[in-house]
Structure formats: C-alpha cells, structure tokens
Amino acid sequence: MSNTEQAKKGIMICGHGSRDKDAEREFGLVAKGLKERFPELPVEYGFLEFSAPNIHMGLNRLLSQGVEEIYAVPGMLFAATHAKNDIPSVLTTYEEKNAGLHITYGRELGLQDDMVEAFQARIYESLGLDPENPPENLYDTLLVVVGRGTSDTGANAEAAKLTRIVNENMGFGWADTVYSGVTYPSVGVGLENLMKLGYKRIVVAPYFLFTGRLIKRIQGYVEKVAKENPAIEFIQTPYLSDHPRVIDAFQNRVEEIMQGELQTGEETLMNSFKRRLAAGEVDVHHHHAEFVDPQDDTQGLSVSDKEHGHEHAHDHGHHHSHGHDHSHDHGHSHEHGHTHDHSHSHGHSHDHGHGHSHGVYKHIGHPMGPRTMIGEGICCCFMGQFTDEILAEEKDKIDNDCPKTAFAHK
C-alpha cells in the first residue's frame, strides 16, 4: 500500500461521553496511545453525548485531513444499546451525508485476553502485588466486580462472565458481580449481602474504562460501607484507564477491520443495526442528544433520519407508556435543581430535559435493583420506569432526595 493510499484512511474512536471533564481527558489518552500504534494514520475521537468533541466533530476532522475510509471502533467494554444502536446510527447518518466516504464499524472491546489481563493487573496493583509475579492464590479475599449495568441482558452477563474468569485466574476465596446501573444487585445492596459471607478483606474492582460520576458514586458507596464496618478491610481497585493492555485491545479491534476479519465471522454490529433498523426494531435516542457545536450546521436530518421519524432535537419528547398513570417531569438538565412532579393519573409522560435515556428494563422493580438507589442520586431516566406502587413504597426516599443535590451528580 502506498503512502498516498494510507493517507486516505483514518481511525475514529467512538465514546459515550461524560459530564466529568476528567473522563473526557482520559478518553483522549486512549486516542493518544492508539496514535502511537498507528503513526501513519490520523486518529480522532468523539462522544455520543455530554462531551465535546462529539462524534460528528471527530469525523469532520478526519475528512479535513483527506480521509476517505474510516475505521470506527466503539470505546465500549460490552455491546449494549450504545454500541448496538446509537453509534451505528450516528455513523450511518454521517456516511449518507458525505458522498464517497466509507465507514467500517468494528467490535466492542469485549472480553479479549488483553482486557482481562489489564483488569487483573489493576487488581494486583491495588493489593500491592506485582502482576508479573502474583501469589498462588488469594483465598482469604473476596472480589466484588462492579459492572456498568444496562437493560441489555447479554452485556450484564458478560460482566458476570468476566468475574468468573478473573476469580479462577487469580484464585479469590469468592467473587461476585454488582452493578452501578439499571440492573441488580446494586452496589450498596450487593456489598451488604456479600459482607455476610464473613470475609475480612474485600476488593471492590470497577470494570470501567474511565473515571466519571458513576466511578465517584461507587467510591462513595464503598467508603460509606467501610466506615460502617471497620473490622473489614476494603480495597478499591482503580479503573482501567489507558493501561497498555487496553491500548492493545483497541489496536486488535482496528486491525480486525483492516484485515477484513469482520466479514468472515458472525453478524457485525453495523449489519445487525441496519437489519433491525429496516425491520423497524430500533429506537435510537443518543445521536440526537449529542453535544452540539453552535458553529456546526452539518447536523441536520439525513434521508434515513426523515424516513425513520427520528427528530433530532435535544429535548427528548419521548413517551413511555407503561399502563399506569404517572406524569414525571424532570426539567433539571442533570445539574439537579430538581423538581419532581408526581401526578399519578393516566398517560405516563416522561419528559427528560437532560438529553439522554436508558432502555426499558423489565426487572426495574427488583428489590435489589435501581429502587435501592432512590435517594442516592439515581438517574431520573429510571424513575419513569417505576410503577405507581413502587413509587408509593419509596415515597419517603423520593421526597427526601428532592431538596438536595444527588450524590451522583455533584
């Protein structure tokens, strides 16, 4: 391949985005690390929401460098809604608007050996041990892996699978998985239950790429539980960040695209998205919740946007009908000057003024799930999924949370 041909290719890393500026900065470190692996190619990155640059901006930067073929990889640990629906939607829309541009979308990071080994290295480091010379076992220690937690069963299962792999590799006395997101068990309740096993040393290891408000909330939970249980030693493992093995994992995903390996195996994320979109099975939110550059007038509706009826506005006027009466209006943009209007009559209207949403989760009322986080800074997206009965049962926590800034959004 000639230098001229190589100059027409580029790499795009697609992240979720965070209100936490430290998370934005750390995501940039991954792009820097990947650039070192592919010095001959331009490497850019962008986010779905909350953060700049958004994905459109990153793609624009590649086009301005003469790139005609883009290798796009999701900066996601597992394939949940963002990787399956939201990022492909943004990429498809952008490709349609730029004739001659070809974008190939790769796989999520997944449970590659590189990712597992990076996670294990972080755990060893938090224990003051050398990852290159680990002990034979850690039978006196309980490992608690904190997964992101989504409405996607498969993504939740991957976090549990990771826990089992790491447990067997490292030889903990016991290991289990808790989640910081929509599924169960939540971090607080999960820790309370696991402490009953009697271990005097507990490692809490978040399987997250970067810092952010969820990481800080997890740390807050652990500190609270540790203070209440001084006889137990709690060890907090740092998140993955730009560990060299994480960069290796991103490199692997780019090389899969370069070598055409995505077309020889199972259905790709992009092919799956296009098939489900054509069948009317996809409900996309995030590409119209992106951070918008006020100077950028390229983010209007594409042909497919108009055909599929997605209104690209920051104000999500989507309505969840759950067969119960619940008007739940959040006009707080996640800065939490938080007004809850609980009017329990028909036609559940759930207006998000904060520009993002979560998938509907069928176990939203699980006694160990998101309801345990009401009053602890739970995302208001989940509130609209709770039934009237749950909201009535948790009324005291809801009322007590309203006057204060939720911990997760401080």
UniProtKB/TrEMBL annotation:
Keywords: Lyase, Metal-binding
Keyword NADP belongs to the record: no
Entries under InterPro entries matching the protein: CbiX-like, Sirohydro_Cobaltochel/CbiX
Comp. bias (Basic residues): 355-365
Pfam families: CbiX (PF01903)
Compositional bias segments (type: Basic and acidic residues): 304-314, 324-354
Region (Disordered) residue spans: 289-367
Molecular functions per Gene Ontology: lyase activity; metal ion binding
Protein name: Sirohydrochlorin cobaltochelatase
Protein source organism: Marinomonas pollencensis
